[in-house]
Write a structure and sequence with these properties.
Layout lengths: L2 H24 L17 E9 L5 E10 L2 E6 L9 E4 L4 E4 L1 E6 L38 H7 L2 E6 L7 E9 L17 E5 L2 H8 L8 H28 L8 H10 L4 E6 L2 H14 L3 E6 L7 H7 L2 E4 L17 H7 L4 E3 L10 H14 L6 H4 L5 H6 L17 E4 L10 E6 L2 E5 L24
Parallel strand pairs: 1-4, 1-5, 6-7, 9-10, 10-11, 11-12, 12-13
Antiparallel strand pairs: 1-2, 2-3, 5-14, 7-8, 8-9, 14-15, 15-16
Length: 457
């Protein structure tokens, strides 16, 4: 594509986007709600691939039909509708789109400078009033790099400086001007919490509360005790028509957690600390959806299974601080073998580009430990299980009829270091094609930078 053609294509896309935004602006919608709507797309029939469905099944010489933005059929010998784009995937593999349940893209954006550092509101140990989506910079070039690695959705979380860091938001990994255009429609919001060394280091170093692990726990309990009182007054006012408490945005978040409307995603490394937080959740009658990082999750696999709490882990990060000392490469596989929900995350702008390889490393570590882990099971660690942890398993994470058409065609075995994402579809719309790099949309931040090959044409 020449520079002139690129400019023309960009102008056309901007005009189409402006028309769509105008229509959305005229419609009634709730503040901060999603305006994401996939553009029209023709049906796509992917044929003769090795298909890992994310449900635990593998189909050799399989087909996947995407139609009307959704998975229409998965199986063998599928006949697509007239006009469908047919992709010959012989020798290639097909999986659901990768979901990263823990990312800071957009809030710790590239370039890595102070102006782009918007992930931690490190001014108070508890900041349930902040929302990560209000920091997301959609121009972050990291989004397109993640898309090239097969990532179709990602949870953008606040950082871990605080006991209660604020709400996170799930995004569809599509090019956009505003975060609302990326926001996953209908996905539940989450609350980011953090235990262990980070909060006590951030505030203890300033001789503030909390400075110990027992201070951490006291901080959670005090916050939820206040939220319980706030919720009781709010609910009583709604039922009996009395005076409601003064609006408190942070307390609204915690009250919604207590009501089960907001999922808790908790940064926590050590097994003993995870067990303590399960007790805190039991005391205040809320559920922890997932422990993130969770390098010692292998020690409490049965307890995680019993509480239906996912472990969101790295494949092999360990030892970079004391609470990560007991991390082992078999962590993911052992949690999975215990019957608990095992998930792999990035927490890193580079790692998010190769989550398929991270899953491969974790699978291989399980094999070396004597665990029988077929590829059709391991793929769930980066597809179906993160969808469960984020409350969207009914929408994404598996290739099943009726689910969103988030699909990746891989050049070969997706667990191989040599594999590339050839084609990436999000809601049935082709968002990446490795064979035509010049046709891919790029971040506004990168446009016009000298030295790019397209500028030389």
């Amino acid at each position: 594509m020449t520079h002139r053609q690129l400019v023309a294509a960009t102008l056309a896309a901007l005009l189409a986007s402006a028309c769509g935004q105008q229509d959305q602006g005229n419609a009634q919608r709730a503040p901060y709600s999603s305006t994401y709507a996939p553009p029209a797309a023709v049906a796509v029939l992917i044929q003769h691939a090795t298909v890992l469905t994310g449900t635990g099944s593998r189909i050799d010489d399989g087909d996947v039909l995407i139609q009307d933005h959704r998975i229409a059929q998965v199986g063998k010998g599928i006949a697509g509708p007239a006009g469908a784009v047919v992709v010959d995937a012989r020798g290639r593999w097909v999986t659901p789109g990768i979901i990263d349940p823990h990312s800071h893209l957009g809030v710790y954006a590239s370039p890595e400078v102070w102006a782009m550092s918007d992930g931690n509101e490190a001014t108070s140990p508890t900041t349930p009033n902040v929302w990560s989506e209000h920091s997301v910079w959609p121009q972050d070039p990291g989004f397109e790099q993640a898309r090239m690695g097969g990532v179709t959705s990602m949870m953008i979380l606040p950082g871990s400086a605080n006991l209660i860091g604020g709400r996170g938001t799930l995004l569809k990994n599509v090019p956009a001007t505003t975060y609302q255009e990326m926001k996953f429609p209908g996905a539940p919001q989450v609350l980011k919490m953090a235990c262990g060394e980070n909060p006590k280091r951030v505030y203890g170093s300033e001789h503030k509360f909390p400075s110990t692990w027992m201070g951490d726990v006291a901080g959670y309990r005090e916050a939820f005790a206040k939220a319980t009182e706030y919720k009781a007054k709010r609910d009583a006012a709604r039922k009996k028509g009395g005076s409601a408490p003064d609006r408190d945005i942070g307390m609204e978040t915690l009250a919604d957690v207590l009501d089960g409307k907001i999922l808790v995603e908790m940064h926590c490394y050590r097994a003993d600390q995870m067990a303590t937080m399960l007790d805190v959740a039991q005391e205040f009658k809320f559920k922890i959806s997932a422990f993130h990082h969770a390098v010692e999750a292998y020690k409490i696999g049965p307890q995680l299974k019993a509480s239906d709490t996912c472990a969101v882990m790295w494949a092999d990060w360990w030892g970079f601080k004391m609470e990560a000392y007991d991390g082992i490469r078999e962590n993911v596989a052992m949690v999975d073998a215990a019957g608990a929900c095992a998930t792999i995350h990035s927490d890193d702008p580079i790692g998010i580009q190769r989550l398929n390889q991270e899953a491969g490393k974790a699978m291989a570590a399980g094999w070396r430990a004597g665990l029988d882990i077929p590829r059709e099971r391991a793929i769930r660690w980066i597809t179906a299980n993160p969808a469960k942890a984020l409350g969207v398993a009914d929408r994404v994470g598996t290739l099943e009829s009726g689910k969103d058409g988030d699909v990746v065609v891989w050049s070969e075995d997706p667990f191989s270091v040599y594999s590339h994402a050839d084609l990436v579809y999000i809601d049935g719309v082709q968002r990446y094609d490795r064979a035509h790099p010049a046709a891919q949309p790029e971040s506004d931040f990168k446009l016009g930078i000298l030295g790019r090959e397209e500028d030389m044409q």
